[in-house]
Structure formats: C-alpha cells, structure tokens
Specification:
Length: 428
C-alpha cells in the first residue's frame, strides 16, 4: 500500500477552508485500510470514503458520503459535518462487511454481473426450448454492455447515476425502442444481483439504478408506435390469413397456432403452454396461461371467449386426446437424404422461430411480406378497443396492463372516446 504522506486536519472547518482546491481529495486515516476524504472544490466541499482490505492488490473501493458543511450548517442528511461524515463512513463499512469479518464481492464489475445474468437467462431459455439457445439478454447485452469498455469495467459498488446516463448517450447506433429494450435487460441484471448481494452494496444502489436508467433520449417509442400502427390488420385480412394457413397446412398444426393467435390475441409463449384441459368447448372458452413476465405471486389463467367456428375446429383437434397433453403439437422430422425427410414424433411447439418458414410463405402469397405474427395480437387489442370494451377488460384478456394499452394504443382509444362523445351531442 502506498503511503499517504502528511494528513491535513480535515475534521476542523477552519483548517479545511485554508486548503487549496484540487482534483484529488485530502485523505485522513480512520482505521487500517479505511480513510475519509475531503474534496475541496472551488465553490463547496464534499466527503468521500475509501476502503481496501489489508493485503489486497485491488484498488480502493470508494463512495461519496455527502456535501461538507463548509459554508452551510450541517443538516444530517445531504450536508454533513465531520462527526456525521464519520458516522456515515462507519455505516458504509459495516454494510460492506455484513456479518463477516471480511467483505465479500467488493470487486465485482458490471461485466461480471452481466456475464452471470446472460448465463442464467441462456440456461433458462435452453431448458424451455429443449436445446441450446441464446436468450435476448445475450443478443442485447453482449454488443452494447460487454463491448462497452467504460461501463463494463466499473465496480458494482461504485456505479453511479452519471455512469449509466453516459452509457445511454453512447447508444447512438440504436433507435429509441431498441435502446429501451437494452436498458431493460441491463436493469434486470443489476436488480437481480441487488437482491442477492444487497448487504454488501451501497444502501442507495437501487435508487442509483432506477434514476440512472431513466431514458435520457427524447425519442422514446415513436418508431415503435408507427410500426405497431402498420401491424394492425382489418378483420377481413385476419380471416384471409387464417384461411390461407388452413389451406396451406395439410397437417393442421401451424394453422391451429395461427387460428388461436388470431382468436385470443395471446402471445406465442402463452399458447404453447396450453393443455387439452384448457379448452372448454361447452362454454366456447379457452383458459390461456398467464405470461411469465413480472414477479410476485402466480397469476391465474386468462379466460378468453372464442367463436363457435374456432370451438368446432378445436373439438376435432382435441378428439381422443388426454386432458393433460400439451394442446399445440407439431411433427418433428429427421433428414434421411439430400431432400428426403421422415417423421419421427409429435412434440410441443417450443420457440417462435419454428413458425418462421411457414409464416413467411403465407404472408408472401398474401402479398403482405412485412406483417409479423405479433400483428394478430395488435389487431385483437384494437378490435376490442373499437368494440367499446373497458380498457381494464382489454388489458386483462390480453394479459397486459392498462398503462401499456394506453401508451401504445392511444390513437384507437381516442377515436373510440370521440365516437362516444359524439353520441351525447344534441341539436340545440
């Protein structure tokens, strides 16, 4: 450890005011490896603390304690005198140690946290898919966080709001909606490590993450809203898609997925978890599993009414099948020659990528190549809004929140309210 040299009397206000402003703090030893620092700026001073365990080769762990009472009396919160700064320093070091004599994980970097988060997400998605696969966390965090040398090497205990805001400003190659998705993945990684290691992290760590990852860019979801508007289909086009899927799919598996996506507005990941018992043919109703989004207690299945023709198609599809079977299945094939394949077994659908080829063939023939399967969900939500259903009911039947409906489908909500207002107008 390097010697500190002469220590200034930073515990006294008069002595502090005689110090010259400089870029580095004036440090004073509190105990072995622990120091309090006083930064003398041109206008005001600030308290800092740093710590390094004895015998460690790592750099010091640093934190800012608060402003100094050089010109304004201490209030015990944002402005601290020497005794209050010392108390905050001891509280900080106690938080680092926890119940152990030696602090743990003080030198975890953002890179360490993100790599562990990607591994967890990849393992989870691979288990669901039944084969090795990359998660969205991998595709978003590797190029935009791990390849960012400035952010990735910052220590977890030293991350600040300005570090996260400056990282946002470096995402110039991404559009607003894409930035938000990358930020959401990083926020998930940091929040997950906070739950596990909150005893060794600064008390305001969660607040730093919350405010540091607030969007600093003016463009939020403008492009996404325009794209959503282009993906809302008329009812006749939805019928054409379903009929074309039935005509093209001789096995009926892909057609059933398309039909249920159009009829329920549910996500692919929800539909593929349905079981035969979730089809209530007597009531023309389906029990769609809730999405895995969010946290907290398990959500109950969503009851969705379907038309009689959909119920009739399901009646044939479910005939003589055990109630506990996965509802949506498809044939898996094995290649036996250059252009020869043979059926192996029927297995559940696992990932949306399994829809890619038949969907592309379908939309190309209908001459709507830019339409994606998720358009069936957008169209279902807008259809419900136009029918005058309460927004809360629309959100509940589509397993989302009122805030998300209002944010992304505001145009159709406004149009519906204008029509209701017009009905109340009387001739005077």
């Amino acid at each position: 450890m390097a010697r500190l040299g002469k220590e200034e009397r930073i515990d006294q206000r008069a002595s502090r005011l005689r110090l010259k402003p400089r870029h580095l703090p004036y440090w004073r030893t509190v105990s072995k490896g622990l120091h309090i620092g006083y930064y003398r700026g041109k206008r005001e001073g600030s308290w800092f603390a740093r710590y390094r365990p004895a015998g460690s080769n790592h750099d010091y762990i640093k934190t800012r304690l608060g402003k100094c009472d050089d010109r304004i009396d201490a209030d015990g919160e944002g402005i601290l005198d020497w005794k209050q700064a010392l108390a905050e320093c001891n509280k900080w070091i106690d938080g680092l140690h926890g119940d152990d004599e030696q602090p743990k994980d003080l030198h975890l970097t953002i890179r360490d946290v993100v790599v562990a988060h990607i591994a967890d997400r990849d393992a989870r998605d691979s288990e669901r898919a039944g084969r090795p696969t990359r998660s969205t966390a991998s595709s978003k965090l590797k190029p935009h966080v791990l390849n960012d040398e400035i952010l990735s090497r910052i220590l977890l205990v030293e991350i600040s709001e300005s570090d996260l805001r400056n990282w946002q400003r470096r995402l110039v190659q991404l559009k607003g909606s894409s930035k938000q998705r990358v930020m959401a993945e990083l926020k998930a990684a940091l929040n997950s490590v906070y739950e596990e290691k909150r005893r060794v992290l600064p008390p305001d760590f969660a607040i730093r993450i919350k405010h540091g990852l607030k969007p600093v860019f003016a463009e939020a979801c403008q492009n996404e809203s325009v794209a959503r508007e282009g993906q809302v289909l008329e009812d006749d086009m939805v019928r054409k898609i379903v009929k074309a899927a039935i005509a093209k799919d001789t096995e009926g598996d892909f057609a059933m997925v398309v039909m249920l996506m159009a009829a329920t507005g549910a996500r692919f990941a929800q539909l593929v978890r349905m079981r035969v018992a979730d089809v209530q043919l007597d009531q023309n109703r389906l029990l769609v599993p809730a999405s895995r989004k969010g946290k907290g207690r398990a959500k109950s299945a969503i009851r969705v009414a379907v038309s009689k023709d959909v119920a009739d198609a399901l009646r044939i599809y479910c005939a003589d099948r055990p109630a506990g079977d996965i509802l949506l299945e498809r044939w898996h094939h094995r290649q036996t020659g250059p252009i020869a394949w043979e059926r192996i077994t029927r297995q559940p659908w696992k990932t949306p990528s399994e829809m890619r080829r038949p969907w592309k063939t379908l939309v190309d023939e209908l001459k709507i190549p830019d339409v994606v399967p998720y358009a069936l969900r957008h169209s279902s939500i807008v259809r419900a809004i136009k029918a005058g259903l309460p927004i809360r009911l629309v959100a509940a039947t589509h397993d989302t929140s009122v805030a998300m409906i209002e944010r992304h489908y505001a145009r159709w909500i406004t149009d519906d309210l204008d029509e209701l207002s017009a009905r109340a107008v009387i001739a005077l």
